[in-house]
Specification:
Length: 291
C-alpha cells in the first residue's frame, strides 16, 4: 500500500509540475490541439467529447437495462433526471410541446453538464506535451473548452428550435408573433392601433436580428465560462499546486452545473416564446400526463 501511495504522490507531483510550467507559458490555448499536425481534422477536444458521449450512453443503458415497473436504483436515477427536467421546462415551453421537446432538453442538460465536469477529471487539462515549437499544449482538453463544440451545440439547438416552432406553432403563428400587432383592437383607438403595425414590424426586424445572434450568444457564453474556468485552475496550480486549486474545483462544479442549466433553460425559453402563449391552464404534471 505504501508503494502505491508513493507512486500516486510522484504522479501527482509530476502532473502538478507540468501544469505549473503550462501556466507559466500563458495558460490554456484558446484553440484545441489538432491531432496529426496542423492539417489534422480531429482535435483533442473532439476525442474527449466522443468519449464522454459514449460513457453517457453506456451508463444510461447500464442503469436502465430492461425497464421495470418497480424501478431499480439506476432506473430511478434516470427517471428522476428526466422527470426533473420535464417539471422544470414544461411551464416554460408549454404543455403542448413539453414532451416533444423533452428528449432535446434532457440531452442538452446531461451532455453539457458532464462535458463541463469532465475538465475536473484527473488528466483532463493537466497533462501537457511539447508541440515541437517550444510551447506546452494540453494532451486532453475538455470538450466545452473548444468553441467548435459549443458552436455545434448552439447550431443544433437552434435547428431544433426552428423545427419545433414550425411543427407545433406553424409559419403563420410565427410570423404573427414576430411581426404582428400585439395591441387589442377593442381597447385601443383606431388612430393608435393602425400606426402600431409599423412599430411592431420594426420591432419584429430587431427580433429577427436577435434570433440570428442567439447561436453566437449561446456558444460564446458556454465556451467563455468553461475556458475561463480552465485558465483559472491552471493559474492557481501554477501559483501553488498542492492545495490552492481545491476550492476552485468546487467552484467549477457549481459553474458547470449552472452553465448547463442556463443553456438548457434558454433553449426552452426560445421555444416557449413562440409555442407557449398561456393557453393551457393545467399543472405541469397533469399536462405531461395528458399526452
Amino acid at each position: 500500500m505504501s508503494r502505491v501511495l508513493k507512486l500516486a504522490s510522484t504522479a501527482f507531483l509530476a502532473l502538478s509540475t507540468v501544469t505549473a510550467f503550462a501556466a507559466a507559458e500563458g495558460g490554456v490555448s484558446q484553440s484545441a490541439t489538432k491531432l496529426g499536425g496542423a492539417s489534422g481534422l480531429i482535435t483533442n477536444s473532439m476525442i474527449t467529447s466522443w468519449i464522454i458521449a459514449a460513457v453517457i450512453i453506456f451508463l444510461v443503458r447500464l442503469a436502465i437495462k430492461t425497464p421495470r415497473l418497480v424501478p431499480t436504483r439506476g432506473q430511478a436515477v434516470v427517471e428522476n433526471l428526466v422527470q426533473g427536467v420535464l417539471d422544470l421546462t414544461a411551464p416554460i415551453v408549454g404543455s403542448k410541446v413539453a414532451k416533444h421537446t423533452l428528449p432535446l432538453l434532457v440531452a442538452l442538460f446531461t451532455y453539457i453538464l458532464i462535458q463541463n465536469w469532465s475538465g475536473l477529471l484527473p488528466g483532463v487539462g493537466t497533462i501537457f506535451v511539447g508541440d515541437g515549437h517550444g510551447h506546452w499544449v494540453d494532451l486532453i482538453r475538455p470538450g466545452n473548452a473548444d468553441l467548435n463544440t459549443t458552436a455545434a451545440l448552439a447550431i443544433v439547438s437552434m435547428a431544433c428550435w426552428f423545427y419545433f416552432i414550425m411543427r407545433y406553432a406553424g409559419p403563420g403563428a410565427v410570423m404573427k408573433d414576430i411581426f404582428g400587432n400585439k395591441a387589442d383592437k377593442t381597447e385601443v383607438p383606431a388612430f393608435i392601433y393602425y400606426p402600431l403595425f409599423g412599430v411592431f414590424f420594426a420591432v419584429g426586424i430587431i427580433e429577427v436580428i436577435s434570433i440570428i445572434f442567439r447561436p453566437i450568444s449561446l456558444s460564446f457564453r458556454l465556451f467563455g465560462n468553461v475556458f475561463g474556468g480552465e485558465n483559472l485552475l491552471h493559474a492557481m496550480s501554477g501559483i501553488y499546486p498542492w492545495a490552492l486549486p481545491i476550492p476552485f474545483y468546487f467552484l467549477e462544479l457549481l459553474i458547470g452545473f449552472v452553465q448547463a442549466l442556463v443553456f438548457t433553460l434558454l433553449v426552452a425559453v426560445y421555444i416557449g416564446l413562440i409555442c407557449n402563449h398561456g393557453d393551457d391552464h393545467h399543472e405541469p404534471g397533469h399536462a405531461s400526463g395528458n399526452h
